[in-house]
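ARCHIVE CARD
SHELF: 3
SLOT: left
DATA:
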Amino acid sequence: MRKQPRQARSRQMVERIVAAGREVLVEDGYDAFSTNRVAAAAGISPGSLYQYFPDKSAILDLVVDRYTEETAERVAAAMSERIGGIGIEVVRDIVDALLTALEADRALLRVVAEELPLARSGPRRAALERRVGELAATYLLARPEHSRRPVPSVSTWVTVLAIENLAVRWVLDQPAITRDQILDEIVALVAGYLLS
């Protein structure tokens, strides 16, 4: 951001710009995203927008950062709440929480997953995967008897990427597979690979 908003009115203006940025990104897509469209959606002049954001990338980065953080928080909270549990029930609950987090804004997920250049979305996705992987590795290290894999950091990396990709594709593709069916299949996959 060009300047940090200090007064309530300035913070409200920034929130208005970010909300408009999210709206434009979802409705028009990444390629059509522009400061003029964001300013119009926010009901302000481009000059007012430029007081806070130097360019469209700064708005885009904040929109995507917030989305990634919201998703990460939902999944991390679900994992933290269930860290004391054991086995298949924990896996099912965590995957269910991930699906819920991804479904919360399917339209923005589609843009982030399918339209943003990897250079822009990759580091954020990697940070989310690392965070979830660390929580999963902590669980496995605390309960080594629950895992059949010898190196928790490796097996959690494989598991997190498999679950993430399956969940994202299920949410975006909306195949003829019910939520219970995808949960059952992912649990079976994880149980077969990871759980003893």
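SLOT: right
DATA:
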Amino acid sequence: MKITIFGASGATGRLVVRQALDAGHAVTAVTRCPAEFPLAGEQLTVIGGDVSDGAALAPAIEGADAVLSSLGVPFTRGPITVYSRGAARILEAMTRHGVKRLAVVSSTAVEPHPHREGGFLLNRVMQPMIVRTIGRTTYADMRAMEQIVRESDAEWTIIRSSGLFDADHVSRYTVSDGPLDGVFTSRADLAHCLLTQATGKRFVGRTVEITTSENAPTLLQVIRREAFGRD
């Protein structure tokens, strides 16, 4: 297939590109810094562009069989529009070129719910604190993105991940269109799930969650790493 990937230079995006190339797909990777993109291959085209610039997206989307977005930006207390504006511009270009299949990455924090594996610390302390403070503008824009995607004419899928961690391989992860108890999602699994949407239609028109249980960190390990720089 011919697959266009936005957010290609991010930690998850690079994995999507690598997995897509390994599967034999022709990939167009869109990044703001094409000269710094770390991957190469005969089936890979790297295009420089900003998702807020609709005109710049046309060459990347024209002729694609599917469009995948793993756009992401760091938390900030200031306004964020990357997700919503990016989705709007991507959908406009898709409509212009007759491309229908779209899958985007979001977060379970967009619609928080208790996680059985999270316990009191995650469910009552960490999750509310992050959602209401440092992640407030991020998740607000993700909600706006989800609404734009749902209201479109695309064959869309929204994938909500839990807390992300790095893993060296794809595991037997869980995907559901209902709430999941898992707390973490490996980037390798998220990339695989996103890529799978390009070739399958099981989750068209649905919002799903994805979690990983294999080799997932504990909350204590995450706190130690973030607070003290130790695993």
